[in-house]
Design a protein that fits this description.
five-stranded parallel sheet; about 25% strand; alpha/beta; 3 domains; GMP Synthetase, Chain A, domain 3; nine-stranded mixed sheet; Rossmann fold
């Protein structure tokens, strides 16, 4: 089935992924493409509408990202410009934008002007909005009308004849309370979309797609990590081809305490998956010996994972496909959307794959965000105890141990992490945070235990709140909880005499430390 599509042209905004999430929440399929995505490709995709995202550049810069000169002439579907997208649209079509006297950032009150408006249909005259811009439009292009202002700043413009609309604020963020209604007006009233994308339709289509790709006799090998993503991917493929999928759950020596044995039992007894458990921890430790660079760690782990999978695939009976739980944020962070922009980090199941891999990839969740995966997992009947698990990185504890990896360090971190998670459950805080874990730092400090001076390791605790992992804030956990977790770790984990709590948000930090 060909779904209705909204395309977002990404100009580098930190909120671009949020726009996609908001559109999908309305039941309309949406994809993010780079700003230089060709007009021909856009037309070929037949979107119902386009959204031009915000971005950090000034439209007046010589090297500012732009669309092609024939963009507005050849694209006939409705276009919505947001922030930088509004400034770009105005300048490209003959208007003007210039740096504001004062950068407008944070809350502002919009006033809708009298006259015909499509973007603010059925919305109040005054609305709270969230601003984040240094430039603003000072002259309208021909055929446009101003439909809203904040003070003396032009905040929204519309050209109904050409189906062009733009807003200076960010309707996608929670700080714009009526933002979802503005997007609804664009998606449904202007683009004439109907909500034809849902969990049920996604599952049915993916199952059909997998059957077609694998065929009636093909065998598949699936890499399980014990996390939500790979589990949902495995169950989805199981729906399509049953026991022709052999799941391989690898103990890379970098899992949490007792996770290998407990998860293996859960896969077999609860989800009835065809699972093989492989202990390859010595193999991973050997390859990681003395490696300290985080990107190198990820690539080594990705390479060894594939070697293990390919070895197991030979036992499966000519398996030709490898299933992975790759998500959209993995793809976005590993593959630069803007050409010259910096890759944040490679993921072991994206950037770490060898060039000449013998197995073809099946990634049924590649276009989904984490919260969507949980929603689809629920539709597939996967129990909450699995779906509500905190995200766990593919490279495991390797990226939570800063510096080189040794079995002794892994065991120490496993103990500290187990205590942290146990106390989150004891205080009924586990489901209040998106992700929580301990990090072993390459730092030793002086301490006192009994009458003895110690010089031992430091553990950092990290807990964040988020909806999709693209942005995150540090969790304001109660002091009583932090005191209990810290006390237990320093008392019970031999080799640790100091515990610190990470209060960094994403951005500017990432959730994981490496």
């Amino acid at each position: 089935m060909q779904h209705e599509l909204i395309l977002i042209l990404d100009f580098g905004s930190q909120y671009t992924q949020l726009i996609a999430r908001r559109v999908r929440e309305l039941g309309v399929y949406c994809e993010i493409v780079p700003f230089h995505y060709s007009v021909e490709k856009i037309i070929e995709r037949q979107p119902k509408g386009l959204i031009l995202s915000g971005g950090p550049s000034s439209v007046t810069d010589k090297d500012a990202p732009r669309v092609s000169k024939d963009f507005y002439d050849k694209i006939t579907v409705p276009i919505l410009g947001i922030c930088y997208g509004m400034q770009l649209m105005a300048v490209d079509l003959g208007g003007a934008s210039q740096p504001a006297m004062r950068r407008e950032y944070g809350h502002a009150q919009l006033k809708r002007l009298s006259g015909k408006t499509l973007i603010f249909t059925d919305l109040p005259e005054k609305m709270d909005v969230w601003m984040s811009h240094g430039d603003h439009v000072t002259k309208l292009p021909e055929g446009f009308n101003t439909t809203a202002t904040t003070g003396d700043v032009i905040t929204a413009i519309e050209n109904h004849e050409r189906n062009l609309f733009a807003v200076q604020f960010h309707p996608e963020v929670a700080h714009t309370p009526k933002g979802k209604d503005i997007l609804k007006n664009f998606i449904f009233n202007i683009c004439q979309c109907s909500s034809d994308w849902s969990a049920k339709s996604f599952i049915a289509e993916e199952v059909a797609k997998i059957k077609e790709i694998v065929g009636e006799t093909g065998n598949v090998i699936c890499g399980l990590s014990g996390g939500v993503d790979s589990t949902v991917a495995a169950v989805l493929v199981h729906e399509a081809i049953g026991n022709r999928q052999t799941c391989v759950f690898v103990n890379n020596g970098l899992l949490r305490a007792d996770e290998f044995e407990n998860t293996l039992k859960m896969y077999r007894n609860n989800l009835h998956l065809n699972v093989v458990g492989v202990d390859a921890s010595k193999e991973f430790y050997k390859e990681l010996k003395s490696v300290t660079d985080p990107e190198e760690k990820r690539k080594i782990i990705g390479r060894v994972f594939i070697q293990v999978f390919e070895r197991e695939a030979k036992k499966v009976g000519k398996a030709k496909f490898l299933v992975q739980g790759t998500l959209y944020p993995d793809v976005i962070e590993s593959v630069s959307l803007r050409g010259a922009s910096v890759t944040i980090k490679s993921h072991h199941n994206v950037g770490g794959l060898p060039e000449k891999m013998k197995l073809k990839l099946i990634e049924p969740l590649r276009e989904l965000f984490k919260d969507e995966v949980r929603l689809f997992g629920k539709e597939l009947g996967i129990p909450n105890e699995i779906l509500q698990r905190h995200p766990f990185p593919g490279p495991g504890l390797a990226v939570r141990i800063l510096g080189d990896i040794t079995p002794e360090k892994v065991e120490l971190l496993q103990q500290a992490d187990r205590i942290f998670i146990e106390e989150l459950h004891n205080f009924r805080l586990y489901n209040e945070v998106w992700q929580a874990f301990a990090v072993l730092l390459p730092i030793q400090s002086v301490g006192v235990m009994g009458d003895f001076r110690t010089y031992e390791k430091t553990v950092a605790l990290r807990a964040v709140t988020s909806t999709d992992g693209m942005t995150a804030d540090w969790a304001r956990l109660p002091h009583e909880f932090l005191q209990k977790a810290s006390s237990r770790i320093t008392s019970e984990v031999r080799g640790v005499n100091r515990v610190v709590y990470d209060i960094s948000s994403k951005p500017p930090s990432t959730i994981e430390w490496e």
